[in-house]
Amino acid sequence: MNLFRLLGDLSHLASILVLLHKIQTSRSCRGISFKTQALYVAVFVARYLDLFWRYISLYNSAMKVFFIGSSCYILYLMKYRYRPTNDPSIDTFRIEYLLVPCAILSLIFNYNFMPTEILWSFSIFLESVAILPQLFMLQRTGEAEAITTHYLAALGIYRALYIPNWIYRYFTEGVIDPIAVTAGIVQTGLYLDFFYVYFTKVLQGQKFELPA
Amino acid sequence: VDAERPKDEL
Question: Where, by residue number, does the polypeptide cross the bilayer (chain A) (predicted)?
Answer without folding.
Answer: 52-76, 97-113, 119-138, 150-167, 179-199
